[in-house]
Fold this sequence. Notes:
Number of helices: 13
Helix content: 25-40%
Order of helices and strands: HHHHHEHEHEHEEHEHEHEHEEHEE
Oligomer: single chain
Number of domains: 3
Amino acid sequence: MHAHSDGRPTERKLMARKSSRSTSFDVAALAGVSQSVVSRAFTPGSRIADETRTRVLEAALKLNYVPNSIASSLTTKRTNIVALIIGNLDNPFYVHVLHTFSRRLQEQGRQVLIFTVEPNSESDEAIMHLLKYQVDGVVLTAAQLSTRMISLCHDRGIPIVLFNRYIPGSDASGVRCDNVAGGALIAEAFLAAGAQNFALITGDLKGTTSGDRVRGFVERLLDGGVKRSNIVEVHGHSSYEGAFNATIKLIRDKNRVRPDALFGVNDIMAMGAIDALRHRLGLRVPDDIMVGGFDDIPEGRRLPYQLTTVRQPIEQMVNETLSILHLDDPTEPIARGIDRPIKGRLIWRHTIPVPPAYRGEADVTKSED
Length: 369
């Protein structure tokens, strides 16, 4: 018999199962190469002849061999795992960011360990959890993080890079869209289209991303001669539903002049505002109220919205973030205090009319069906 009466496998069966696992040395012997060549054959981007790689892979297939990443990490002191801390997955922008990071890291032979935190909350608890996994680096795409946690990671030799945000007073490096300049681009588009009264739907009150977009937008309007009293701010909680409800409340407020231009500081809030204006309030976009967004998520490009927005260069931002982590050279000192703002681009669509003076140079893109 090979099992106990309670169904547990016997020692003989356990030994048979364990002994059936081939090693890289077995593959090397069958393929006629060294063990280090086997290792290179399974490492993306390594220098090895195609014929040799094929011979190694065929030997591995015959022996049912797969590399043991845990054993490898004990030798190299590297796990090839990068932790990604994500906040608001209700915002499709961060879903696309997650996809881009995952694709790029997998191309490099690395894996992503994902931690999610509630919007507007601290990331310190997630940092304490990820430290258990001996990750090679951390990317923080959303939420807040204390300088104490940044120091804790750096002291352990784990680099942290902030994505699309920065933490004032910390030495954490970061890559971000130039959100101040992007906010100014939307303001310029409204001014060029003839808007006079403006509304802002703001997001995370603690985050630098929303704050910088608001600042760039307001400063550009003030520079254009708009009175501060003609700029109204309402909180949209960084969500579609929050912006939908805030827009209804704003437009129904009889004590305010109805704005003719509304800026949602991210696309998902701009889309919530558009739906509230059209379907709950019976207003036309852009004829009655112009709407601008920020991010250029694919959902905003579709025919129901055709949203004018600022496009964040996600691919470039992800590549810059990974370059600061120095994953290929763990001996490189941790980058501290690097701040790389990258310019966004205004994308004209239907929700802000393209003024005649801009029609020859405006970056107009087709909407997606």
